[in-house]
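Researcher: Structure for this, please.
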Amino acid sequence: MTAKCAVNRTGPVISPKQQLDQDVLADTLKKEIKARKRDAQLERPGRRPGPLRQLWSYGKIIFNSLYFNVLTNWDTVLDSIFEPVYWLVDNLTRWFGVVFVCMVIALTTSVVLIVYLCVLPLIVRTYPAHWILWHLCYGHWNLVNIVFHYYKAITTSPGRSPQEKTDIPTVTICKKCIVPKPARTHHCSICNTCVLKMDHHCPWLNNCVGHFNHRYFFFFCLYMTMGCIYCSISAKDMFLEAYYAIESYYQTPPPNFTSEEKIFHKSLLYLWVLTSSVAVALGSLTIWHAVLITRGETSVERHINRKERKRLKQIGKVFRNPYHHGRINNWKMLFGVERTSHWITRVLLPSSHPPHGDGLTWGCPPYRQDTMDTI
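Model: Predicted structure, token format:
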């Protein structure tokens, strides 16, 4: 019996499966060779991808860095998008701070000149002696407090976070300064530094409001509001007379007012409108800061505490502000009142005494310590 088999005269026998594997391997090698040739052509001098392809690749890298980061959220994305706007606002605020300070000085000086040249002479001529004495005493006391506290607010440093390594306890690391931040310290993008107990950056002071000048800022707002209210109330009757006189300028025939009388009328009109407007605007700001001081918060901490209060409420806990020492004690700590006489020497009269504490460490009230440890 003869066996039938296929014999390859030129080599060994190859099965169909082996032949298929060889074909697949050959195709793979051909593709790899083509890819290497394409890469080699791109690497040649003068053969770079076009600008649109480069822009597209760069955009994909940016998008992936935002999208695939586990720490990324919508706040980070929006901050990245609006970063040019923040940069523009910060630089404009920094450069226009000097202009705002000059405006405050110019407007305050104009009001003081009108009071000395127009209002006070009229008061001296028409008011009784006791009212004249009251206006002189109260007006000059208010003016001295305004000038003193504004000067101290713009020239006193709010307090900077230590740039070198210290033993002071810190709560976090500033992602911009790359230095440890003590409690209640926040970074000011306009001043480009970390400020102790930062409240906000005030363009009208061209300075941050922080631990060492918070009292000066609040007293300036308070005394300026009181001064504006005093001027608007004292000059109300004079303003009405000046307003009716200016309205009569357009009668036929016009009244025979001299140029000095017309300047007098317009000055009183300017005085009353300016002081009344500032009293409303600045008075609202002063009340707002008074509420924050009563709560033991700053403007920055108010937003942080509100978010923390909502977060703890969702898990069945109650938030307690660790820096709230009681309403009266919060005011005493801000004003630096340690004795009863300090309400006169440090509150009613100008004083340059330092604030309570160093702004680096903050102690919790004893009755809140255990509560804060549990939260």
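Researcher: Any notable elements?
Model: The mean pLDDT is 83. Residues 83-126 form the longest helix (44 residues).
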